[in-house]
Design a protein that fits this description.
Elements (H helix, E strand, L loop, with lengths): L2 E11 L1 H4 L6 H7 L12 E6 L6 E5 L7 H9 L1 E9 L15 E3 L2 E8 L3 H11 L2 H6 L5 H11 L6 H12 L9 E7 L4 E7 L8 E3 L7 E4 L10 E3 L4 E6 L2 E6 H6 L1
Antiparallel strand pairs: 1-4, 1-10, 2-3, 2-4, 5-6, 6-7, 7-8, 8-12, 9-10, 9-11, 12-13
Helix pairs in contact: 6-7
């Protein structure tokens, strides 16, 4: 499973989240403690927002710990909102096109988890995309397909409705092969996330309280290494995080709406 870290708040160097904390995303790339695999070495990526609404993007297939460009970039680039991801692949080869985050317009997106029956539904989901989003597909992952399907289902205007419609399109998995999705994404204004599992628990995700600079973070594992200082996002929950706080909505309320 992959690991994710994201931030929103006053502008900071990317390294304050990705590199410098005791249990930073860079540390989690080799020593994850809440994943099936401790090592996440199948590439990495960062999307970040500045004056332009379209995010910058840097991805590579190297393990995060093996790329000096990553630490230099994180030291020099400052942003008020960014998403970073280290990959342990479950679907799709190790290639730059398959590294997260993915971006389209002002949106950036990353995913941790699996759709075990993805090969069986891939053609149907591709066919359902409008031309613009079909042509935007570059890789072969279930993650990029989730992102483009969310956009097709109205992510721009109704994120919660888009998530519900996308889960309907994915449909049920086979017996003994549950769907597990933890997704983090942004439009440059707020961080959004959801955890969903058809059975059991989705991959971990936590939200920080207010950091010492007034910002907030989402991460697969608490960046300080102390879970008690962070709020775990429950499975089957949608959340939005801004510098003002965290809001969470259970999926059962979304489905009932």
């Amino acid at each position: 499973m992959c690991r994710i870290a994201a931030y929103t708040g006053p502008e900071i160097p990317l390294e304050n989240i990705i590199v410098r904390p005791a249990h930073s995303l860079l540390e989690q790339s080799q020593h994850a403690s809440e994943a099936k695999l401790a090592v996440n070495g199948d590439g990495f990526g960062i999307s970040w927002y500045g004056a332009d609404e379209t995010p910058g993007l840097y991805c590579d297939v190297l393990p995060a710990w093996a790329d000096d460009n990553l630490t230099n970039l994180c030291r020099m680039v400052r942003s008020h909102l960014f998403i970073a991801h280290v990959r342990a692949s479950t679907m799709g080869e190790t290639s730059r096109a398959n590294c997260h985050p993915f971006k389209f317009g002002k949106w950036s997106f990353c995913h941790n988890g699996q759709i075990p029956h993805f090969k069986a539904i891939r053609r149907r989901m591709l066919a359902a995309l409008p031309d613009e989003l079909f042509e935007a597909m570059q890789g072969t992952t279930d993650s990029e397909m989730i992102f483009l399907t969310l956009l097709a289902n109205g992510l721009e205007n109704e994120p919660i409705t888009a998530m519900r419609a996308t889960l309907d399109q994915i449909g049920p998995a086979g017996v003994g092969a549950p769907i597990k999705l933890t997704c983090v994404f942004s439009d440059g204004q707020a961080l959004y996330a959801f955890r969903y599992a058809s059975i059991g628990q989705a991959p971990s995700l936590y939200a920080s309280g207010t950091l010492d600079n007034g910002g907030r973070s989402l991460a697969s594992e608490p960046l300080c290494g102390v879970a008690a200082r962070w709020t775990e996002i429950p499975t089957d929950t949608i959340c939005a995080l801004t510098a003002d706080g965290l809001t969470m909505t259970p999926f059962k309320e979304v489905i009932a709406a």
